[in-house]
Amino acid sequence: MNQKLFMDRYKRFNEEDEAIQLSMNTILAFEEYIDKDIEQTTIDNIRDYMEHLIATKSNRYNNVIHIARYYYYVDMKEHYIQMTKYFNSLGVLEHIVDRIAMYESEELKEDVVKDLELPPFGTDSTDLPRYAKKFMDVMRSKLSETSCNKILAGNNHRIPESSFEKEKEFYEQSDSFAEYLRYRHIRKVAELQEYYDENRIWFEQVITPDVIEFVRANPEILSGVIENDKLYITKIPYDINRFLRAEDDTWKRYYACHCSFVRENILDGKEDIPKEWCYCSGGFAKFPFETILGQELDVKLLETPLDGDLLCRFEIDLSNVDYKR
């Protein structure tokens, strides 16, 4: 590894040299295990190492995050994106379980927990669908469909509300919610253009001109459209470049899906996971607008690749919501 590069980057975090060395040691341990320089690693090397960390009960956040950052620093995009898959599932099921106590009771939460098997951090996405299937089986056996969907539809990645403070300012400065959404979409397209121009990864996405045009053509993506007091949101495909190039609908669905817990199941179909699992994705989609509008919103699942559709699409009923008309 390029230790000087790593040291220079971490000094920007105002870290002490001793702390930086400890962080660097997690990468050196990775290199020692796979017996090669990190810049020569394969995706399979990453998978093997994550299995090793789980087996040795060393699958802790701080033993993984520095590897992911290093891949980002040296522009190994596919490797970095592979690492993000482990973090995307971190704590999600646990947060959903906590919401049972919020909307039902602590007793019911404990009743659910005793029947659950939660995946250890670092579990490969090929093995996550069986956990999702078991999770949904238990949830549906203990809760009504309405309650289950509401509990699933939370901010399960625990994104801080402060992340959307600027968006709330934009909304407050707009004459209407519809106007805010129009300009939000324009800003998001400009943001994608900036990431393309600077050759940077946008979340897990490599941005290309085709990506920019695809988003530009659909105002529901990265923003939303209001019709008759209903807000419609379509999620940007997870691997949008491969989504746009895929000729087979199954592969399109696979590349559209963001969820590490079910994506692989779109290809192999081993587990019968109900489409309502995607209310979790609905919670992610609606959370920015809950923050902007300052109230909890009800979301309805309209389309999901898990059920044969090509994109994820949601509807939010605003008829009883106080928003700028």
What is this structure's SSE topology?
Blueprint: H1 3-11, H2 17-34, H3 43-55, H4 65-73, H5 77-88, H6 92-103, H7 106-113, H8 128-142, H9 145-152, H10 165-173, H11 177-197, E1 201-202, E2 205-206, H12 209-216, E3 225-227, E4 230-234, H13 240-245, H14 249-256, H15 263-268, H16 279-293, E5 299-303, E6 313-317
Antiparallel strand pairs: 1-2, 3-4, 4-6, 5-6
Walk me through what this model shows.
The protein has 325 residues and is an alpha+beta fold. It has three domains: 86 residues; 61 residues; 157 residues, no CATH class. Helix content is 54%, strand content 7%. The protein is built from 16 helices and six strands. The strands form two sheets. The protein has a four-stranded antiparallel β-sheet with strand order 3-4-6-5. Strand 1 and strand 2 form a beta hairpin. Helix 9 crosses helix 16 and helix 10 packs across helix 16. The mean pLDDT is 95.
Properties at a glance:
single chain, 325 residues, alpha+beta, 7% strand, globular
